[in-house]
Design brief:
Chain lengths: 421, 179
């Protein structure tokens, strides 16, 4: 399937319109006002989904098959608490219950038939809202199958067989949304597992054909970013002596104005770089203060009086320098290009304010940006590190179009060998 | 009374049909709000961006904007709320249209405009130019600038209590300041 930036922006319009229609219908159903917050689009593969949903937490989903338009499947997913809250809110409104106007609380252990049925109805209504919003943006009709309710504590329970959804070899689109009903806030995930052939046909009038790239290139780039993250994790382990792993890796396409919200409003410590070449952009390694203190202690032979003094800053900059080289050399290798990075710049500030000037810079030339975010965890949970990369839009499009998938596959087949004999 | 929005027709309102009535407690880039007592308007993570707070003390009405770039004519005039010049001008114009205030009764406070990085790519004085643009615009409109907390190398978060007109500025690693 051919993609370009115009098509990616279309995905954003789909997310926004879909969430808006879903919110309006929820508002009509509950009789209270709603607010919509579409945060970002993520491209996720089966491994990402398994990592997100294979655990202790129960999730509930409602799935429909799409006929026409992009084709594929649309799945709305709530965690259990959000599902109970949204169901109680709607039941309170549609069936006022006892004298104080509230129904008995839903059993924490097990959803009864009425609750399950109500949740399925609510989810289906929101799912349909999303899909109607997509149909408006794509200017096409989309029919849907009856809803299928699922629940469980792993991805297979929630989604069914992921390979059957085509996500083992493809990326699914995840629209991360939050709907606020006055006094309540419900977070949920909404996934589109598109049928690539029909999505390709549907997007045919939504693209600039001059600067396109194959959807598969995006998958390749995601794999390349994964390699870079693994490199950074390895370097971190070698320098600190603490085993680390890549825990989360996201490929996001976000409006520039949402870039600062990729980081929290808490104080963070880190190292920032600019990089130039194909692509060019910004690379940040960010720690919360506690993690930064831990890692500085690991890097220095003796505990410093002030972890954020000159010695600590210098150690963290050196770590960042080595990790940045690992990430960018990996990219450059796959892209057969050269990517140079700036000297490290130490940062200790409000997280979102660090991203703010980066948004201002890229916002001069573009409205959307690719943001890669990765979390590296120490195995014993002593610290974690987030890596953010914001790339210039046009550069990344060109880099994607030049991505040599054969070379990428060969690079992935190259066995790792130990650095220290 | 309350008024709110952003420069991006595609981002706000979320859809033409979605009802949005809650005051936004938190403003992002390119968003504005005008609210009456007892609202508190917040915007977080100001780096090179500036926040401009407009206050009409007689009726305890306040407005706030979070602008990202200094001059709209340099980039794209279709998104005025994102710029310190057109955003500030529109905020004042909207304020005057929706309240009984006259320009001479308004006061303004400017916060932000830091230079967070020394990288050549991001150090083109965007922060200082943002603050300068807001300042020039307010002066050209005849709105008195009552206080400023601008420049430096740190990020800021702003909380504007429209009941009192006090703007509380939190700067990383520093004491909280009230303007």
């Amino acid at each position: 399937m051919e993609l370009d930036l115009k098509a990616l922006r279309t995905f954003h319009r789909m997310a926004r319109e879909g969430a808006g229609v879903a919110a309006t219908r929820l508002s009509n159903l509950t009789g209270v006002d709603t607010n919509v917050d579409v945060t970002k689009i993520k491209f996720v593969n089966a491994a990402d989904i398994r990592q997100e949903f294979d655990g202790d937490m129960e999730h509930l989903s409602v799935r429909v098959d799409l006929v026409g338009g992009p084709g594929g499947q649309a799945i709305i997913v709530f965690d259990r608490d959000a599902a109970v809250e949204v169901t109680e809110t709607v039941l309170d409104f549609t069936n006022p219950g006892d004298l104080d106007g509230t129904n008995p609380e839903i059993d924490d252990e097990e959803l009864d038939g009425v609750s399950k049925s109500a949740l399925t109805e609510i989810s289906h209504m929101m799912n349909c809202g999303f899909i109607d919003g997509w149909a408006d943006v794509l200017d096409t009709g989309i029919d849907i199958s009856p809803p299928e309710f699922r629940s469980g504590e792993n991805s297979e329970d929630v989604f069914g067989e992921l390979s059957a959804l085509g996500s083992d070899s493809n990326l699914a689109l995840m629209f991360q949304s939050r709907i606020e009903v006055v006094g309540e806030e419900f977070s949920f995930y909404h996934y589109l597992f598109p049928d690539l052939k029909s999505l390709d046909r549907t997007l045919s009038n939504q693209r600039d054909t001059i600067h396109g790239f194959r959807f598969e290139k995006l998958i390749g780039f995601d794999q390349m970013v994964e390699e870079g993250a693994n490199e950074a994790s390895n370097h971190m382990s070698q320098l600190t002596g603490v085993e680390t792993d890549v825990e989360i890796r996201n490929l996001n396409f976000v409006p520039v104005r949402n870039i600062p919200s990729q980081l929290s409003d808490q104080n963070v410590v880190g190292v920032a770089f600019t990089y130039e070449g194909l692509p060019s952009g910004y690379l940040l390694f960010v720690f919360d203060e506690e993690s930064a203190e831990q890692i500085i202690q690991e890097l220095l032979p003796t505990d410093p009086d002030d972890p954020f003094g000159d010695l600590g800053k210098s150690a963290l900059q050196e770590l960042g320098n080595i990790m940045a080289s690992g990430v960018l050399d990996g990219w450059a290798n796959v892209l057969s290009t050269t990517i140079d990075h700036s000297p490290p710049e130490y940062i200790h500030d409000i997280g979102s304010s660090i991203m703010d000037p980066i948004a201002a810079q890229v916002g001069q030339n573009q409205d959307y940006a690719f943001v890669f975010d990765t979390v590296i965890n120490a195995d014993d949970k002593e610290f974690d590190c987030s890596i953010f990369s914001v790339s210039e839009e046009g550069d990344l499009e060109q880099a994607l179009s030049q991505l040599d998938m054969d070379k990428l596959h060969k690079a992935r087949e190259t066995p790792d060998f130990p650095v220290n004999e | 009374m309350h008024s709110q929005g952003s420069d991006s027709a595609e981002d706000w309102p979320p859809t033409p049909s979605a009802r949005v009535t809650d005051p936004p407690l938190r403003l992002g880039i390119g968003e504005y709000a005008i609210e009456q007592e007892p609202a508190v308007l917040n915007t977080y993570g100001l780096g090179s961006c500036v926040a401009v707070a407009i206050y009409y003390p007689k009726e305890s009405i306040g407005g706030l904007i979070h602008a990202m770039l200094p001059y709209s004519e340099e980039i794209n005039e279709e998104t005025p709320w994102r710029f310190a010049d057109t955003g500030t001008r529109r905020l004042v114009e909207t304020f005057l249209a929706e309240t009984r205030a006259s320009k001479s009764e308004l006061t303004a406070k400017i916060v932000g405009g830091s230079e967070m990085f020394s990288f050549a790519q991001v150090s083109e004085n965007v922060g200082a130019r943002n603050a300068q643009s807001a300042r020039e615009t307010l002066r050209s409109l005849g709105v008195t600038i009552e206080a400023e907390d601008i420049g430096g190398n740190n990020g800021r978060s702003v909380s504007f209590d429209v009941g009192t007109g006090v703007v509380t500025v939190k700067t990383a690693n520093k004491e909280v300041e009230k303007l």
